[in-house]
Write a structure and sequence with these properties.
Layout: H1 24-33, E1 37-41, H2 45-53, E2 58-61, H3 65-68, H4 80-93, E3 98-102, H5 112-124, E4 130-134, H6 140-148, E5 153-158, H7 164-167, H8 177-193, E6 197-201, H9 205-214, E7 219-222, E8 230-233, H10 235-238, H11 256-272, H12 287-304
Parallel strand pairs: 1-2, 1-8, 2-3, 3-4, 4-5, 5-6, 6-7, 7-8
Helix pairs in contact: 2-4, 6-8, 8-9
Bound molecules: 3-methyl-2-oxobutanoic acid (KIV).
Amino acid sequence: MSVTPIGGRPGFPGRDEIRQKITTAILREFKHRHEPITCLTAYDYATSRLVDEAGIEMILVGDSLAQTVLGYENTLSVTMDEMLHHVKAVRRGVKQALLLADMPYGSYHVDAESALSNATRFVKEGGAEVVKIEGGEKRADLIRRIIDAEIPVAGHIGLTPQSVNVMGGYKVQGKNLSGIEQLMRDAVALDRAGVACLVLEGIPREVAAMITAEVETPTIGIGAGPDCDGQVLVFHDILNLTFAPPAKFVRRYGDGAELISHAVQAFRADVKSLQYPSDEQSYHLPKETKVGLDTVLARKRAMRS
Ligand code: KIV
């Protein structure tokens, strides 16, 4: 079997090329230089490795794992242990990107002690460099506590999927004046708490632009328009692997469903029609063993007759 060399894909930066290791400090430099930051989710070794090798600066093991990989209906059911299992796999695939782990629903809602212990597990056991927490100003004190424990935190405001039952569905936030004021308060509170970056999800472009201009921390948009400091999308969304119509903000960059179905059907057809495996794809006995085996079989046949 031939093995593709690491970083050997044409058009992609090599895994070991002089790309720098992305840190939270470097994210701020990107913001100051107005260089857009890219972020994708990933949930396993193979895809996180490809995302990392393609030069994406931030890789998020999102709690979207719940729907994309585990087949849950929403993000509320995914557990710390399930998240940690995937964070560890992604850690093995990522070299240069900053690795973020999403704190799942329930892992930071009970009390600050358990939140701190769960965040610590992501760093110690999973190798995450940043943990992400949904919610605005009401999370500022907790976020400060976690940062005090030397764990960088990413904020996440606007349409926060873990609040689906409170929001009454996945609804764009900040569409009226009081909603905008709340989002500004949330953004400023988290910025002052010292978040490493701030995910803005499902908010009007105009509001995301105001927040981005107001806060020191880099803003990473998803469904928040082009004026954020960076953009994040879900890996399965950009590759048509979600079995559902995409949200308005999603852009598809490939058809993974088509590619996989095609390959799987071709494999099935080849096996059914005895086209796979071929003789070249089979192992053969060494010549001497084959001669010896033929002799033994011939002797057996002679004894039987
Ligand atoms: O879980 C997730 O995938 C996310 C983002 C898309 C921001 O939180």
